[in-house]
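Please, why this fold?
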Amino acid sequence: MSAIELRVMRLPHGKDLLLPAYQSAHAAGLDLVAAVPADAPLTLAPGARALVPTGLAIALPAGHEAQVRPRSGLAAKHGITVLNTPGTIDADYRGELQVILVNLGRESFAIARGMRIAQLVIAPINHAQLREVASLEETPRGRGGFGSTG
């Protein structure tokens, strides 16, 4: 396993919050926390969605992206998930990391300051070089779509 440098800047409304962290030695994602005001938790009603601030901006190295993914515990226990999963953060983005959460559960859910709300996975990217062709080689699957492999 190799490590890359990820430069992180705390924004004024996130100064007292923990930096993203891996929760185990082999974890793929860094946990992101909510930077909502301490005296004003964000309540997500069933079916509602919200853009949740993290109080962080990052500088990814060229050739990498950051993927914002749900936390499985929030999804399994409360129906809270990342709406555009995985959300992609490009290496040239310098704004605040924000997470679009949606409540697919049956009860309202309160998001408090410092609550772990999502995971950030850093991944290498490859750019494709497109080449238009008149036909594609055949495969055993062919044009079989959804559900075609069992």
